[in-house]
Amino acid sequence: MTAPLRTAESTTASAALMHDLGLRARQAARVLALAPTAQKNEALAAMAQECRARRADILAANSQDLAEARASGAGAAFVDRLALDDKRIAGMAEALEVVRDLDDPVGAVMQSWTRPNGMSIERVRVPLGVIGIIYESRPNVTADAAALSLKSGNAAILRGGSESHRTNRAIHVALTAALARSTLPEAAIQLVPTRERAAVGMMLAGLDGTIDVIVPRGGKSLVARVQEEARVPVFAHLEGICHVYVDRSAKLAMAKAIVLNAKMRRTGVCGAAETLLVDVAAAQSHLAPLVTMLLDAGCEVRGDEAVRRVDARVKAAAEQDWSTEYLDAVISARVVEGLEAAIAHIERYGSHHTDAIVTEDAARAERFLREVDSAIVLHNASTQFADGGEFGFGAEIGIATGRFHARGPVGLEQLTSFKYRVRGSGQTRP
Amino acid sequence: MTAPLRTAESTTASAALMHDLGLRARQAARVLALAPTAQKNEALAAMAQECRARRADILAANSQDLAEARASGAGAAFVDRLALDDKRIAGMAEALEVVRDLDDPVGAVMQSWTRPNGMSIERVRVPLGVIGIIYESRPNVTADAAALSLKSGNAAILRGGSESHRTNRAIHVALTAALARSTLPEAAIQLVPTRERAAVGMMLAGLDGTIDVIVPRGGKSLVARVQEEARVPVFAHLEGICHVYVDRSAKLAMAKAIVLNAKMRRTGVCGAAETLLVDVAAAQSHLAPLVTMLLDAGCEVRGDEAVRRVDARVKAAAEQDWSTEYLDAVISARVVEGLEAAIAHIERYGSHHTDAIVTEDAARAERFLREVDSAIVLHNASTQFADGGEFGFGAEIGIATGRFHARGPVGLEQLTSFKYRVRGSGQTRP
Q: Residue A265: its chain B contacts at CB < 8 A?
């Protein structure tokens, strides 16, 4: 009987603790919403300084996390995501300064107009409130997500992976030390102090109405759980099944450059291409060079009949390949009966993330850009540009494939809401 | 045993029927998203014609609904909301033509910029998809909501109140006849054909992923149920606890005009003022004239100590009055210790809908506009301007107090999402 009782007590304790965390975040959000830009920028500069000054503490915590991970048999990729060194800490501090230097979205006038009765109406950006960030192994998310939340006037509640809990705590100590030196509330950035999994469930339920939005950062199973269970809005994408369609009027050299970059520049990012579609009218001239290029670059190709005829190294694609996000040096490839078939394929198998057409035909390009229902559609450019930095947003907290509020790269502006300010001179409504 | 079995069968049948409805809406949404403006406008014009041409059918159905409502003892206000006559049908048809004449938001470029590598990026409006509208007695919502959905390129699934089901059906027959004459799919506007309450639950669950957003139109209990149960985004406000704060530097004449209009122009709308806050520094000169004016206009006043001393007709306000939306000729009133106290009162008791300050002091006005966290904040203008038409949106499907996607009046633009179109010349990512 002892074990269940202890669990119940512990859950009650963490529920109370999480409830307080939410209330503190809500109070901090009220202060942050009205904080002048200079005040937020000073805090961000101090955060960068403290991360640099506390480098040794952060590395010590990280080496403990790494030792535990290795002892429990974690793979090399996992250990690499978790590991910090001087260079990575310097990068983290620089990222804080990049966010400091971005324009403050809060208070920006998005639109303004005057009504016939003389009232002027402005639509101005205001923060969202409290952002809950649930992430896995990369500890730099602690600083990155906190900085984006703070600059956009939002309070952050961070729940990192338990495998990096010591590192996250050390980074959070540095951030909090900077806040203590500033005039902003320390509760602007809170780290969930319990490793209990129940804490995640409480966050997904909105933490008694105190969390306004959840941003998951991590693998597909984390995102799937968040999308399934969250009772508050979520900014996320479950997967990036991105396509490159090589049209009949594509230049071969450009198609080769874009396909190679879209697939192979980095295979583990959500904007990496997973499927190559080649117009049947371009197949004779373009298919073999594209497929051979990919194979020679070390990419496994899984193709339909036509693609398999090109090279013996091509494997047969199964139906499920068309809806698989490999995140690896693997691509599915097929020949399609022209533009319309390409669009239909993307509609059926894609994930509404990022898709590209390569063509010299402007009308066909415009039709693709119009009809493909994805957050990002590109003409003659690589899908790997699906990134807030590449869009000029300065930094991003993630990429969203939902249709509400934020879609595509989620930068500072997407972390805001708006309100209407109306200025009159005594107007009453007839 | 028979009754439960029948219920189970019937629920299964309506689940299948609702599932099909959702799939048809999703298919229609795909066509609507790409429909040219002229095609949508022709359909809207035809809808107005059919409503006029089928006036007799609609009135006949309405008189049956009215007879049933009267027989079941419905009150006068309820019957008035339900009742149609020639003038109301003409108004409904005109409203369809108003929406036809509004600018089409779909395809509008919201922002565009060029990256250093020469890629141009555009953020363009696209429809949301499928909108579920759940409404109560007013049958004109059938036409209004359908028109706004269609013009913004969205498919609509309408679930009207069961007390107006014959009228809604007759209006829907008219709309569908117009769609049949057009080149748009008839499933662009579907009316849920079952009166079973389970259908609402299915819609709130997202109808197997086919509904993208729910808009409730009706009383507080409907909105509360929708906000509580919906697993998809909701555009709504639960209540409008709107304040007018009369500052120390308010002109009395202006304050009187705004307070009277804000409270009494129409007491049943969400933008009607429910609480009057008077700055203690203005109380001696302004309080008595304001309170007397309201009482003389037939408004019940529930006040704090200071307000009660003004006039014997003032009743004592209880704590719950400050958070009550009367939607009637009743107002709560209190004296506050200046601007900061007014803002604190609104933060504590308000519903983040619409709040106004009356003052001649620009700095104090700006502070109110900045610090009051409501969808609409006004300076020297009546809260009754909280309306899409008054904002110049042409028409609205409702007012939202959430912070996501839509806030304030929800017009055509708020019924859209966006996507990014990127045009390159062979760019790959370094």
A: 428-429
Within an 8 Å CB–CB cutoff, is residue A332 touching chain B? no
Interface contact A265-B365, CB threshold 8 A: no
End-to-end Cα, chain B, rounded Å: 71
Q: Tell me the chain B residues in contact with residue A405 when contact means C-beta distances shorter than 8 Å.
A: 404-405
pLDDT value at B13 more than 80: no
Task: Tell whether A217 and A252 lie within a shared domain.
Answer: no
| Residue A1 reports pLDDT greater than 50 | no
Average pLDDT, chain A: 95
B261 in any annotated domain:
yes
Set of chain A residues whose Cβ sits within 8 Å of the Cβ of B421 = 369, 377-379
- Is there a domain that residue A424 lies in? no
Average pLDDT value for residue range A204-229: 94
Shortest Cα–Cα distance, A125 to chain B (Å): 11
Total-model pTM: 0.93
* Inter-chain residue contact A380 with B405, CB threshold 8 Å: no
Same domain, yes or no: A219 and A286: no
| A131 in the same domain as A221 | yes
Tell me the residue length of chain A: 430
* Residues A209 and A274 placed together within one structural domain of the fold: no
* Residues 162-221, chain A, touching B (beta carbon < 8 A): 212-213
Its domain, for residue A155, covers: 2-235+411-419
Domain match, A214 and A258 both:
no
Distance in Å, alpha carbon of A53 to nearest chain B alpha carbon: 32
Residue B422: helix, strand or coil by DSSP?
Answer: strand
- pLDDT for res B395: 87
Model confidence at B275: pLDDT above 60: yes
pLDDT digits (tens, 9 = 90+) for B340-377: 999 999 999 999 999 999 999 999 999 999 999 999 99
> Which chain A residues contact residue B403 at CB under 8 A?
128-129, 212, 417
Q: How many domains does chain A have?
A: 2
Same domain as A384, residue A247: yes
Does residue B386 belong to any structural domain of this protein? yes
Min CA distance, B225 vs chain A (Å)?
15
| Smallest Cα distance from B191 to chain A, Å | 24
Residue B398 forms part of a structural domain? no
Is residue B79 predicted with pLDDT exceeding 70?
A: yes
- Asked if A203 and A132 count as a contact pair (C-beta separation under 8 A), the reply is yes
Residues of B with CB below 8 A from A375's CB? 419-420
Are A141 and A189 in the same domain?
yes
pLDDT for A4 equals: 39
In a shared domain, residues B212 and B294:
no
Q: Give contacts of A371 with chain B, Cβ < 8 Å.
A: 34
Enter the ipTM: 0.93
Q: What is the pLDDT of residues B162-206, one digit of tens each?
A: 999 999 999 999 999 999 999 999 999 999 998 888 999 999 999
Å between A393 CA and nearest CA of chain B: 11
Number of neighbouring beta carbons within 10 Å of residue B38:
9
Q: According to the model, what pLDDT value does residue B365 have?
A: 98
Q: Which residues contact B399 (CB under 8 A, 6 or more apart)?
A: B237, B240, B270, B271, B353, B375, B386, B387, B388, B408, B409, B410
Residue A285 belongs to domain with CATH number: 3.40.309.10
Strands B408-410 and B398-400: antiparallel
- The CATH number that applies at residue B190 is 3.40.605.10
| 8 Å CB contact between B40 and B102 | no
Cα A406 versus chain centre, distance = 11
